[in-house]
Structures are given as structure tokens and as C-alpha cells.
Amino acid sequence: MSLYGSRRMNHQLEKYSRPAAMTKLLMPVFFLILASVFGCSDGSSDAEKRADPEKVAEIQKDLQTVLDEWRENERITGASLSVFSPPVGDIDLVSGSSKLSIDPERFPDTPLGSDQPMFIGDITHLLVAAIVVQLANEGSLEVQQTIDTWFPAIENSSQITVRNLLEHTSGVPIFYTEEFLDVLYEQSPNSSKSPDEVIAIAASEGSFFEPNSQYGYSKTNFIILGRIIELVTESTLEFELRDRFLNPLDMSDTYLAGIEKIPSGIPLGYEYAGLSSDAPTVIDGHVPQTPATSVITAEWASGAVVSTTGDLIKLVRGIFESQEYEDLLSELLRPAAHAAQSSGPIRIESGAGVFIWQDDDEQVVGQFGFLYPFSAQFMYWPKSKTVITVIANEVDSSRNPNSNFQLPVIENLTTKAKTIIDAN
């Protein structure tokens, strides 16, 4: 295995080796204290609340400055940021490059476009969870039914419910075993992996814990849910995603990678290895890293959707604010019996495909997404109807080249953006 392949494997094993480690790694995004929020809605329409154009232009300028400075300070190749709040409406911003040039004086870097989709990783869970809840509301399945009907080979399948999968209390292990990582990255990176193959890999590991006895984040939960969707509907996951959400919400820049063709392609991803890196492909400290076909197809329902920050705004507002999907909310926002994080300054609850917490007595809903080397995040404040979404095509930050998890770095940008919105 190559040095960089070994590094990727070590990062993945560190993140996914056991529930406690996974929870600790995934939760820092929710520990920063968020800025104050808008007051209660007065019942007027978004248009009636809109600030004057000059004020909106000023806010947009401030947000662009923050995005540019954040990206440059953290040495992130490219990033997109979208916000929505009733006073400012929709603002879509982009900074940096989708591809770096080895000779920028002769061939300039390729700028990142706001309409270029990038991997959103675990934010895919919100879409999958929403379909499952829809199917439950339609009577096609029950969230409290056990999964042994579909997957009897999974340990404790007669005790694991659909709801356990949605909220990560199933005990099903992550599929990123050391052996499978070697297959994905080194042995057959160009080969597609089927969901059933991935589920079998995880099932062979047994169980992390007894179902519903604790919280343990596992991407495998959503691979299983994706297959349940297909088995129940006798259709494909990509069709159900598109028919139920992507098309109705006009998410024209969102696709299930590895399955659907993406017309404009996906920007190149990068890992910041530091200015002293001697990697043969390094450009000013950035090493290009493209997700392998094997990884994309293995992730599937757990993280293979690509989207734009603008489309994510449509998704979050559509699911949490539109009447069409209002019957999903009680189940999506139902806290699990075991919190995702109960220690620290903020208690983080696990809902269905999202996390929920309180900040200054206001509910906040969010999710962080990661598919090497892309990172993404959305946060939604229901009281003020504010949404902030971020996607970056860089895995390391300049402040910590030895860690590939971008989560606290993106949170830093989200907090700054929220402060600007609240101040205006």
C-alpha cells in the first residue's frame, strides 16, 4: 500500500473503529456556541420582511469577504456558501478553485462555480430518512418494524428496527474495515461495489452493541435503509430520490454519484499536505485526491449524493418549511432514546438523518457530511427560518495538516456567516 493510501486508511479506521470514537469525531461541529437568532415570526411573508436592496448587497459583500478570508487563511482550494433568511433572501457565494494548475502563470487555476456539484457526504442521510418516513406514512413500512424480514443475516436483526437505523442506535458496524479499505483504495479502486456487498462486509463484523442500548454512528445504517427503500418500492434509490424530492424541489444540480451521470462533472478534491510535502502531484501544498469509483459506490445511500449549496438550501427549506412535507417533521425531529452527545456545553440529540440541539432556548437542526476529500454542512434555525450551507473541496486545513477532518474548520465559517446575518 502506498504512503498516501496508508494515510487515508489510518484516517478512516480512526474515525470508524468504534462507536465512542465515531461520536467523538463527528460531534465537535455542534459544540461551538452559535450567535443569537432572529426573533419570533410575526406571520408576515418573506417578501414583506426583506431588507432594502442596498442592505442586502452590503450583507452579501460582507459574507463574500468572510468566505474569501476564511478560505485563504485555511488554505482551502475551493468552497461554496449559501444562506437564506427572510430579511436577505437567497445568497449564493463561491470562492477559490475547482482545479489547481501546475503552471498558473501560463494556465490559470479553474475557478469554482456555484452551480458545480460537490459531494455532500452524510447530508445524504436527510434525503434517505425523508423517503423512509414518507414510506411509513404511506403504509409501506413501519419505523418500529424489525429488519429481519429483509436482512436476517445481520446480527440482532430481529431486534433492530428501522427507527434504530435512522437514529444510529442499531449497533450495526461501519463497513470501513481495514481489509475493505485496502480493497477500496488499493486493490480495486475502479470497481463498483454493490450495496449488498457493503452490507455483508459490515454484517461479518457482528455488532457494536445491543440494539437501542446506546448511540453509535454508522454509515452502514443508511446503506441498509437505501436497500429497504428499493425492496419496498420495487424501484431504485435514484428514482425515488428524484421523484420524491429532487424534481419537486427543483434541485437541478443534485445527483446520486456512481449511478447518475453528472453533466458538468465534479470539481477535483484536494488534501492539504503542507508546503514541505514531497508528493509527486503536490501543488503549493495541495495534493489532488479524486474519490475512487469503489468508494463512491460503496458509500451510495450513506454519502454519494453530490449537490450545490444552493440546492441544499432548497432541500432544507422544502423539508422543514413546506406544507408538502410537513407530515415528515415529527418523525425526522423525534429525539432518539440515547443522545448523540450528552456531555459538554450542549446536548446533541440524534433525530432521523439529522442532529438536533438547543441554542439559547431555540432549536437548531443540522448535519455534517464527509466523503474524502470533500466536506459539507448545513444548519437550520426554525425560529428565524435561517439556513446556512457550506461545501468545500479540501480535506485538510493549514492549521492542522496531520488531521483530515474538516469539521471544526467549516463550523468556523458557518458561525461567522450567522453572525453577519444576525447583525443585520
TrEMBL record:
SUPFAM superfamilies associated with the record: beta-lactamase/transpeptidase-like
Keyword Hydrolase among UniProt keywords: yes
Keywords linked to the UniProt accession: Hydrolase
Ranges where the Beta-lactamase-related domain occurs: 110-398
One GO MF term attached to the UniProt entry: hydrolase activity
Superkingdom assignment: Bacteria
Protein name: Serine hydrolase
Organism: Candidatus Lucifugimonas marina
Phylogenetic lineage: Bacteria, Bacillati, Chloroflexota, Dehalococcoidia, SAR202 cluster
